Amino acid sequence: MSLFVPKFDESVIVREAEAEVVGRTPTTVRLLADSGRTGGALSTQRVTLSGGADGAAPHLHKGSAEMFYVLDGEAQLLSGDEVLTAGRGDLVIVPPGMPHAFAAAPGADADLLIVITPGVERFEYFRHLQRIALGEVTRESLLEVQELYDNHFLKSAAWDERR
Predict the structure, then answer these.
(1) pLDDT tens digits, residue range 6-36?
(2) Are strands 91-94 and 43-49 parallel, antiparallel or unpaired?
(3) How does strand 110-117 pair with strand 82-87?
């Protein structure tokens, strides 16, 4: 096992009012700190989902683990072939290479803090998702940037059955 030591020399402070927000209800993403600001240690965002909204479709990261902390509400998470429900205060960490997805539980709201470590520059990925939502680029365009953002989409029968 190797030890990764991030390279940055000042604390990263992100005030709520200063965080870039992409999307709008029912899915809002607050971009908090990207890999470049944390010396590669992590990337983090806050995702707010309302009324059972979907968050991310099934995917995996080859080089990073992803942590989901439920700040409020109730979320459904795919972890491998298992779909679990997590409530306020629950933590789920998915290892590299494991299929996962997330959404608000049906009919519920969910507020999630998401951390990817080691970090990947992903803020532009969320901006790309916003361009898709606005009809500026196609959903298929995500396939062209899977390697860049270490976000590899896949099918999940377990997820499809529950969503």
Answers:
(1) 999 999 999 999 999 999 999 999 999 999 9
(2) unpaired
(3) unpaired
Cβ pair 96, 117 in contact under 8 A: no
Query: Distance between CA atoms of 69 and 112, rounded to whole angstroms?
Result: 6
Q: Model confidence over 120-152: pLDDT tens digits?
A: 999 999 999 999 999 999 999 998 999 999 999
What letter represents residue 1's amino acid? M
Bridge partner residues of 112 (DSSP): 47, 70
Residue 43 is predicted with a pLDDT of 97
Between CA 159 and CA 163 the distance in angstroms is 6
